[in-house]
Amino acid sequence: MAEVVSRQEDTMLGHPKGLFVLFFTELWERFSYYGMRAILVLYLTQATTDAVNPGLGWTSKEALALYGWYGLFVYFTGIFGGAIADNWLGQKKSVLVGGIFIVAGQFALAVESMTAFYAGLFLLVCGVGLLKPNISTMVGSLYKKGDARRDSGFTIFYIGINIGAVLAPLIVGYFGEVVDWHLGFSLAGFGMILGQLVYVFGRKHLVGVGDLLKHSAEHAHLMKQPLTKIERDRMAVMFISFLIVMVFWAAYEQAGGLMNLYARDKIDRVVFGFEIPTSFFQSLHALYVVILGAPMAYFWVRWRKKGKESSSLFKMGVGSIIMSLGFVALMGAAYDVSVSALDKAPVYWLFLSYLLHVVAELSLSPVALSFITKLAPMKYASLMMGTYFAVTGLGNKAAGLLGEAAQDAGEMAIFTGIALTSLLLGVLILLFVKKLKALTHGAEEVDVD
Ligand code: PHE
């Protein structure tokens, strides 16, 4: 009880203050990430001879290929970022060093030289790999085992991510595209500097969070112990959740590629006489997350308090099924275009589909982050989170490949395939949820609240 009281003294909105330090740090990191991402392909493909804002003059194909590889590597390096944190730096320092890499990377992109451009991308890949998984693990470390606030803490953190993601394309996108690409990249760099400042000045709220496990002789002995049966079971169930997550991102990340082109060419974007620009839809996911994050978290808390099934795996299964419905909505659009022979499909399909994507995302993505912090054995805490991000990177790459496949197979076939796969996976998870839950050995039990 004394413990509870002392924790409450240092809270904000009922959560540890450290959560808000991590919230703002990650908000600015994502601002820098999504800002740079919003202009990367545009910069690459802009003609070198453009009088106002010359780019690199690459073909679309070359630009999209680099974009795809960047998306893979930037998350794949999470494995190394996690391993470095577990064995060498601890999460707290890894986040700091990662942030420094990111600042350096963004400013390198701001320099007009191809060497600086590639060096910048390399620094960003290393920086995000060090920062992103480790800051996520730190969110989990703010809560003790059994603390019922953990899931909602991750949702709050996730809202911060998406505030950065909504703002970035507007600010970095505008100044980069309209004024000067290099100014855009610098703004992304300044965003990350703000993140670093929040992190450094907020350190006092992160005491005891994200430190390297002590390397005493006794501890070294502990680290060498093989995993127990319980730990192995938990690892197994985590890997199953990785599969769900990979399929999920392969579907979701259609938004930036295939869906972007689809929205441009096959959706009637005129509403009340005004044509919504295609790029607007790139902020729509994040905007929906910011709006729906809190109500969804509230919904799940109420659901749990009613005593209903509310394990992470259950939510992930539900998320997968809702994702499938999001693609059914897109099938509606494809139907309108092909069968009803409309020239373009009505825009409501896109709004509805993205809405469902986000309801699915909120049932699955913050939940998966929280789940990992509950299940990973202490000595692999960061590595498992890093692996989760690597899997996300693979999902991103798969999304690109599916988008390419749609060029031959047609959108209807790809949308239907994604809808069926997500549905099947979701239903399987729900059918086996009891068995899978048994493998977690009570890791998700929460104290009565
Ligand atoms: N919008 C999420 C973010 O940037 C997407 C994501 C989820 C990326 C999980 C990586 C891993 O954090």
Question: Mind explaining what this structure looks like?
Answer:
- It contains 16 helices and six strands.
- With 449 residues, the protein is mostly helical.
- The protein has a single domain, classed as Up-down Bundle (Growth Hormone, Chain: A), CATH 1.20.1250.
- A two-stranded antiparallel ribbon has the order 1-2. A two-stranded parallel sheet has the order 3-6.
- It is globular and about 60 Å long.
- The chain starts with a helix and ends in a 10-residue tail after the last helix.
- The N terminus is likely disordered.
- The site of phenylalanine has 7 residues, from helix 6 and helix 14.
Please tally the β strands and state the result.
6
Q: List the secondary-structure elements in sequence, H or E.
A: HEEHHHHHHHHHEEEHHEHHHH
List unreliable stretches of 5+ residues: 1-8
CATH H-level name... which superfamily? Answer: MFS general substrate transporter like domains
Biggest β-sheet strands, sense, barrel = 2 strands, antiparallel
Q: Percent of residues in beta strands? A: under 5%
Tell me the CATH topology: Growth Hormone, Chain: A
Mean pLDDT: 90
Number of helices: 16
Helicity level, as a percent range?
over 70%
What ligand species are in this complex?
Answer: phenylalanine
Radius of gyration, in Å, reads: 22 Å
CATH hierarchy class name: Mainly Alpha
| Apparent shape | globular
Structural class: mainly alpha
CATH architectural category: Up-down Bundle
Q: What is the rounded distance between the termini?
A: 13 Å
For the record, the count of structural domains works out to 1
With strands numbered from the N-terminus, the spatial order across the biggest sheet is 1-2
